[in-house]
Amino acid sequence: MNPKVNWFFDKDTPWKDAYRKLRAIALDCGLTEELKWGCPCYSIDGKNVVVIHGFKEYCALLFHKGALLEDRDGILVRQTENVQSARQIRFKDLREIAGLERSLEAYILEAVEVEKAGRKVPLKKTADFPMPEELALRLRASPALEKALMALTPGRQRSYLLHFASAKQSKTREARIEKNVDRIMAGKGLG
């Protein structure tokens, strides 16, 4: 146990007991406990394996390379269609965790083997994401904006593309693009 992470488990939340059980399971698998993104993160040889986190409706174990796991029990969840690598196992109560304890250990140990083997999730390239027509028009009209967008990291480029494309109406896509022009020109990610 890492004392720097204790505050997370001491917080008064509906998931307090569930978090503690998940912590015990992760630590029993020989992982190193750290605090990352405000959540307990468990790693092997400095490589992130699984994170414990909670939401309003559920708490979860998030496997960083969950897409590479076998999912024998059919319990891994892809949070959204745009998530490429990570997968969650969601829980609504402590009994659910206790009932799946052996399976959870098996999933964690498989994730450890994925890391030790150096396996990588094949990710879609930025060019594979659709570019909204409104953005394409704006980039053609402003070479400086196109240059600034292409200078961003691939992850930031994808974030903008997904954000702009998710709007249903053209007017909303145009407004989102306009709102973010200054951020893109400043080399910043979606805020």
Structural descriptors:
191 residues, alpha+beta, Aspartate Aminotransferase, domain 1, 2 domains, 5-stranded antiparallel sheet, 45% helix
Q: How would you describe this structure to a colleague?
A:
- The structure is a single chain.
- This protein has 191 residues and is an alpha+beta fold.
- It has two domains: 3-116, Alpha-Beta Complex (Aspartate Aminotransferase, domain 1); 126-185, no CATH class.
- The protein is built from eight helices and five strands.
- A five-stranded antiparallel beta sheet has the order 1-2-3-4-5.
- The mean pLDDT is 94.
Radius of gyration: 20 Å
Q: Distance between termini?
A: 34 Å
Total number of beta strands = 5
CATH fold-level name of the largest domain: Aspartate Aminotransferase, domain 1
Topology:
Blueprint: H1 6-10, H2 16-28, E1 32-36, E2 39-44, E3 47-54, E4 59-63, E5 87-91, H3 94-99, H4 101-116, H5 133-141, H6 143-151, H7 154-165, H8 170-185
Antiparallel strand pairs: 1-2, 2-3, 3-4, 4-5
Helix pairs in contact: 5-6
The gist of it:
With 191 residues, the protein is of the alpha+beta class.
